[in-house]
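User: Second chain of the day. Same drill as before.
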Amino acid sequence: MSNAIDNAFDQMDRELGIQMLWLEPTVVEQGTKRGLFGSTLEGRWPAPVQAFLHGWEKFRRKYIYQLWR
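Assistant: Same format as last time:
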C-alpha cells in the first residue's frame, strides 16, 4: 500500500463497488467529541467541557443555522 490510509480505503471502495451512504440525522458520534474518551490529539479541554462544546455545536447546526436557510 503506497497511499495514505484514507485514500487507500477510497480506492478499495471504488474497486469493490462499495457505496458510501450518509444518514441524517447522524447515527454515530465519536466518543472523544462527546467527552466519553480522552484524546491525546485534541487535549485542549477536559471531557465534560468537550462534551458540552460538542452538544452546543450540534444544537447550533441543527436548529440555529436552519433559521437562515
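Helices lie at 5-16, 47-64.

User: Great, on to the next one.
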